[in-house]
Design brief:
Blueprint (H helix, E strand, L loop, with lengths): L14 H34 L2 H23 L6 H17 L1 H12 L2 H30 L4 H55 L6 H23 L1 H13 L3 E7 L2 E6 L16 E4 L2 E5 L3 H9 L10 E6 L4 H7 L6 E6 L2 H9 L1 H6 L9 E5 L2 H6 L8 E7 L8 H4 L2 H10 E10 L7 H13 L2 E9 L14 E2 L14 E9 L22 H12 L19
Parallel strand pairs: 4-11, 5-6, 5-8, 6-7, 8-9
Antiparallel strand pairs: 1-2, 2-3, 3-4, 9-12, 10-12
Length: about 550
């Protein structure tokens, strides 16, 4: 039955054209709404980590808030045109500025999760208020069966969501970036709402309401345009707040922000104090020149201590620092680098300081870089291809963004298949002191994939304890230092090999340079004992269907 409460509207165009304008507005608003949603998920995953949890939080909170917004919109149906104009103006402002607000909260206050929930609630309430008001407006153009009107509105809404979902990764992110893309979406949202209210339904508005909505839409568009002009200064100020005043390089690549601060003393790869070089990915510390050499030697050298070394596979390691250690062995004939982040490789090649630290490893003719997803690349590998003598997994850790796949039993099964019968696999497994369950889950998962394992924990870590800025750095997800006051002085590794005999953990430094005194056979023996003292037995392996790592 048609709602008799809804009066007919005086339109400047025929009813059919008016309906088309409203449906186009529904299409545009749906596309913008989904862009806001995806923007929050993507930015929160970059800043906080754990994309599954961030997506769940945003979706759940936003859908709940949409229901609240739909109920609240019932009070605006008597003045649907004015209400819709207000809703779209506010949605354009909040949604368009949401990326900036979330990034500012992360940079200056660290309260990212609270801001994420607040923005999801606000955007969800405003999106939820759209459909009841649009239903009222379209019924005012031409009364029809409510079921048919709902079908038309939702068809336009779902198609708009499709376009918005595709535009975000393929248009907005690559051409405009996260901040400018969200601001541009807000402008489009405000213009679409203004066309419906200030043009199509202008006769429904009194002079005062019309002037008020015109000022609101104009102010929103002006604010968003001004914010777009200030994106670069804003990002610069945020970087200063995050990393201190010594930011030397900042680039966006692969949808991530890469930042280098400081530089080592001339002629030395290791330095400290004000000359300390740090490499950040999305605000999280990835490399520090204060201790990177110790980390990469502890990761690489035990895997090269015995057996053939001719063919090597390096997973991750786009900074070239693990590659530097691998290339120190004369027996190495070829190294394939499966780069999860090609932008990091480009920076490691072109930045003079980082290139000096990694010994210009990517210029070595023995190195072949493959920009591909490691899981899919190994799965597509020809079973008859030559196996690798050594595989080094220099991935962020079992709580990184790809932990569910790249620390799973299925992935380790692919690595075991690619290993020679006498091969060795070295895996960075996170700190055993702060994340013991994750560390021992990695070890259990390797054993479940048919590999014999020897875990070890190397001390001497100093990075992550402080940064050049006033606020502590947020280390990379999975390194166990995500909570204030909780820092680790250890790195955890697992050395694995085919068969049933656990491989021996000992050092074999390349002959081109002497071993560091801190990494000796005795220190590695202590590292094995240190890890074994915290052993957690009986843990299940982590699989694609049942990931076991803490988020």
């Amino acid at each position: 039955m048609i709602d008799q409460y809804v009066p007919s509207a005086r339109l400047p165009v025929p009813a059919a054209v008016g309906r088309a304008v409203v449906l186009v507005c529904v299409f545009v608003c749906a596309a913008c709404g989904l862009v806001y949603e995806l923007e929050l998920v993507a930015l929160a995953a970059s800043l906080i980590g754990d994309p599954v949890t961030q997506a769940s939080v945003v979706l759940a909170v936003m859908v709940f808030a949409m229901g609240v917004g739909s109920l609240l919109a019932k009070r605006l149906r008597c003045r649907a045109a004015v209400g819709f104009g207000l809703v779209e103006g506010l949605l354009a402002l909040v949604g368009g500025g949401s990326a900036m607000a979330l990034y500012a909260s992360f940079a200056w206050f660290g309260a990212t999760r609270a801001m994420l929930v607040a923005l999801a609630v606000a955007i969800g309430v405003l999106i939820g208020a759209e459909m009841p008001l649009l239903m009222t407006l379209i019924q005012r153009i031409r009364r029809q069966d409510p079921g048919g009107a709902v079908a038309d509105l939702f068809a336009a809404d779902y198609v708009g969501a499709l376009v918005g979902g595709l535009a975000f990764p393929f248009l907005l992110l690559p051409f405009f970036g996260q901040l400018t893309g969200a601001l541009l979406t807000g402008v489009v949202n405000a213009v679409a709402g203004g066309v419906v209210v200030l043009w199509l339904f202008r006769h429904d508005l009194g002079r005062r309401a019309r002037c008020g909505l015109l000022v609101l839409n104009g102010a929103v568009c002006a604010l968003l345009a001004l914010a777009a002009q200030l994106v670069s200064p804003f990002e610069h100020a945020a970087r200063q707040a995050l990393y201190g005043a010594d930011v030397r390089v900042s680039v966006d690549a692969d949808g991530r922000q890469l930042v280098l601060t400081g530089q080592p003393l001339p002629g030395s790869r290791r330095s400290g104090g004000e000359h300390l070089l740090r490499f950040f990915v999305d605000g999280r510390l990835r490399v520090s020149s204060a201790d990177e050499e110790r980390y990469h030697e502890a990761l690489v050298h035990p895997a090269f201590a015995s057996g053939p070394r001719s063919r090597v596979l390096l997973l991750g390691g786009g900074d070239g620092l693990a590659l530097r250690e691998i290339l120190g062995y004369r027996q190495v004939r070829s190294v394939t680098v499966l780069a999860q982040e090609p932008g990091v490789v480009d920076l490691a090649r072109t930045d003079p300081v980082l290139a000096r630290m990694n010994g210009r490893a990517f210029a070595d003719p023995r190195v072949r870089v493959v920009a591909a997803d490691a899981f899919h690349r190994l799965r597509a590998r020809d079973p008859g291809a030559r196996p690798y003598d050594v595989i080094v997994s220099d991935l962020p850790g079992p709580q990184g963004p790809d932990a569910r796949r790249l620390y799973s039993q299925e992935f380790y099964g692919l690595l075991a298949r690619a290993l020679a019968p006498t091969g060795r696999l070295a895996v960075h497994a996170g700190p055993p002191d702060l994340s013991p369950r994750d560390f021992w889950t990695v070890e259990a998962t390797l054993r479940a994939a048919g590999l014999a394992t020897t875990p070890y924990a190397v001390g001497g870590r100093v990075s992550g304890h402080a940064t050049a800025s006033a606020r502590p750095a947020l280390p990379f997800p999975g390194d166990g230092n995500g909570e204030p006051g909780r820092v680790s002085d250890q790195w955890g590794f697992v050395l694995a090999a085919p068969g049933t005999t656990p491989p021996a953990v000992r050092t074999a430094p390349p002959p081109e340079r002497p071993a560091l005194s801190a990494l000796t056979g005795r220190s590695l023996s202590s590292a094995v004992s240190r890890a074994g003292a915290r052993r957690m037995a009986g843990l299940p392996s982590s699989t694609l269907m049942h990931p076991r790592y803490d988020e």
